[in-house]
Design a protein that fits this description.
- The chain has helices at 42-50, 69-73, 90-100, 105-118, 134-146, 164-179, 191-197, 215-220, 262-273, 286-295; strands at residues 3-13, 16-27, 31-36, 57-62, 65-66, 75-78, 152-155, 184-187, 200-205, 208-213, 225-229, 243-249, 252-257, 278-282.
- With 304 residues, the chain is an alpha/beta fold.
- The chain folds into 2 domains: 3-219, Rossmann fold; 223-283, Alpha-Beta Plaits (2-Layer Sandwich), CATH 3.30.70.
- A 6-stranded mixed beta sheet has the order 6-7-8-3-9-10, sandwiched between helices. It has a 4-stranded antiparallel beta sheet with strand order 2-1-4-5, covered by helices on one side.
- Helix 3 (90-100) packs across helix 4 (105-118) and helix 3 (90-100) runs parallel beside helix 5 (134-146).
- The structure holds adenosine-5'-triphosphate.
- Adenosine-5'-triphosphate (ATP) is lined by residues 13, 16, 18, 36, 38-44, 80.
- Residues 4-231 form the ABC transporter domain.
Length: 304
């Protein structure tokens, strides 16, 4: 089956436990957002996928088989430390890298032209990489990950430092690559972008995958929240069992419901005091979910 599986990866650097039984899977044709605080283990996971690092335990599989050199050659990788030669012209560099991946000169040239045009840097291929802006260097780096039409894409913070137009282009390209059938895995701290772009999200904390799934699946693991626009303040909620105020601003109150039916009591209590202008379930954003998961002392260890 065409899926990229990370199975119970464990890795220490000396006394630092970077990964601890980290598991998740990215299906072919899916965009997967890999999020977590600084130092939570994202880059370590990706480096293990690429074979740059050896895990202490666990493995990564593609189509059910452990990744070997051949499969790794079919990965398009954008490393966090951008690995371009500063004095080489962008176009020459892309052709050179594509040839390392096995394309002949004509195909490499064609792929370079196609991707630099697509990524909006067609005019800059004659410039030395060091003379490009950081954002344009990043576009070159993405082009380098794409020229050999990879089967799998693994991108370490591809969006950091990009302007809004470049973010849009990069997002479209990732969507197109997944539609072509590649699993696309990328890390990012831009949670609004991850929410918009990804089919599924994995949240890693201290080297453990603490939540993964579609946004709706992640929301289902939470206690439902309701927003009510009615009485001012929060004192009218305090006596309702299974209802807890988590935010209040003037007449707008967000209530977390820990007992089914408690939301109806919240509504009745509000109506008893006056008009209710709005009463609706809240849909927490990825930022809200992330905050809850990452600040929780009780990670759902090993959850997939
Ligand atoms: N070469 C190394 N030697 C020692 N410790 C390391 C090394 N590389 C990473 N670490 C440690 O391993 C842990 C995981 O780091 P990693 O770079 O994988 O995190 P990350 O999630 O990619 O972080 P960021 O979001 O900041 O890029 C951190 O505690 C980090 O300090």
């Amino acid at each position: 089956m065409a899926r990229l599986e990370v199975d119970s990866l464990t890795k220490s650097y000396g006394s630092v436990q970077a990964l601890s039984h980290t598991s998740f899977a990215v299906e072919a044709g899916e965009v997967f957002g890999f999020v977590g605080s600084n130092g939570s283990g994202k880059t370590t996971t990706m480096r293990i996928m690429l074979g740059v690092l050896e895990p202490d335990a666990g493995e990564v599989r593609w189509q059910g088989r452990p990744l070997d050199r051949e499969v790794r050659r079919r990965i398009g990788y954008m490393p966090e430390e951008r690995g371009l030669y500063p004095r080489m012209k962008a176009g020459d560099q892309l052709v050179y890298l594509a040839r390392l991946y096995g394309l002949d000169t004509a195909a490499a040239q064609q792929a370079m032209e196609r991707w630099t045009t697509r990524l909006g840097i067609g005019e800059r291929v004659g410039d030395e990489v060091q003379k490009l802006s950081l954002g344009n260097q990043q576009r070159v780096q993405l082009a380098a990950a794409l020229t050999h039409s990879p089967d799998i894409l693994v991108l370490d913070e591809p969006f950091s430092g990009l302007d809004p137009v470049a973010v849009e282009v990069m997002s479209e390209v990732l969507r197109e690559e997944s539609a072509r059938g590649a699993p696309v895995l990328f890390s990012s701290h831009q949670l609004d972008l991850v929410e918009r772009l990804c089919d599924r999200v994995g949240i890693i904390k201290n080297g453990r995958m603490v939540a993964s799934g579609t946004l709706d699946e992640l929301r289902r693991t939470e206690h439902p929240q309701w927003i009510l626009d009615g009485p001012a303040g929060t004192s009218w909620v305090t006596d309702i069992e299974g209802a807890r105020v988590i935010a209040n601003e003037g007449s707008r109150t967000t209530v977390e419901v820990r007992r089914p039916g408690a939301e109806q009591q919240v509504l009745q209590a509000a109506l008893a005091l006056g008009p209710v202008r709005e009463f609706a379930p809240a849909r927490p954003s990825l930022t809200d979910l992330y905050r809850d998961v990452v600040s929780s002392d009780d990670p759902k260890e090993g959850e997939r």
